[in-house]
Amino acid sequence: MAEESRNQDAKPCAPQVDIDYQELDDLIFQRSGGDKENLIMILQAISKRYNYLPLPALRYLSAKLGVSMSGIYEIVTFYSMFCLEPRGRNIISVCLGTACHVRGAERIKQSVEDYLGIKAGETTADFKFTLETVRCIGCCSLGPVVVIDEKYHGGMTSDKMLNTLKEMAN
Ligand code: FES
């Protein structure tokens, strides 16, 4: 019983990330010449590969480029596009900017939350989905807009969103 109550608040464990250091070398050197001036570009490439910035990858990057970890953290924490926490394999971003909001974006967000059982900013326990919200992504005329894994979906509705999620879940 004590064991059960101790585990009630336990958060899902993030899946272990296996860093392929050969691949990481490619990200660091082939695309940017391993130049510390291109640090942001390199961080973007690592983030794109893992959907977040794994600590072992940052330590490796620090050693390879000769940039301190505090220097890397300074950049990572400055730009909102970078995330240090593991995120799901699929990133769903619902735009809640004004134009999308008046066209029902809040309802779409709610339907995603209900379907996945998470709130905006959270990741499902199986690390399949992360739900995020954004404020205007510059294509208001297509609103409401949802970005799923970097692909823009305009004219979104709750029904379309749920169908898309069901397809992705299979
Ligand atoms: S308000 Fe959603 S794209 Fe501009």
UniProtKB/TrEMBL annotation:
- InterPro entries, A to Z: NADP_DH_HndA-like (IPR028431), NuoE-like (IPR002023), NuoE_dom (IPR042128), NuoE_N (IPR041921), Thioredoxin-like_sf (IPR036249)
Establish whether keyword Metal-binding is in the entry: yes
Q: What is this protein called?
A: NADH dehydrogenase (Ubiquinone) 24 kDa subunit
Q: What are the recorded GO MF terms, alphabetically?
A: 2 iron, 2 sulfur cluster binding; metal ion binding; oxidoreductase activity
Q: What does the similarity note say?
A: Belongs to the complex I 24 kDa subunit family.
Essential cofactor(s): [2Fe-2S] cluster
Provenance organism: Desulfarculus baarsii (strain ATCC 33931 / DSM 2075 / LMG 7858 / VKM B-1802 / 2st14)
What does the record's cofactor remark say about binding? Answer: Binds 1 [2Fe-2S] cluster.
Q: What CDD domains does the record point to? A: TRX_Fd_NuoE (cd03064)
* Keywords assigned: 2Fe-2S, Iron, Iron-sulfur, Metal-binding
Does DNA damage appear among the keywords? no
Cite the binding residues for [2Fe-2S] cluster: C95, C100, C136, C140
Where does the source fall among the domains of life? Bacteria
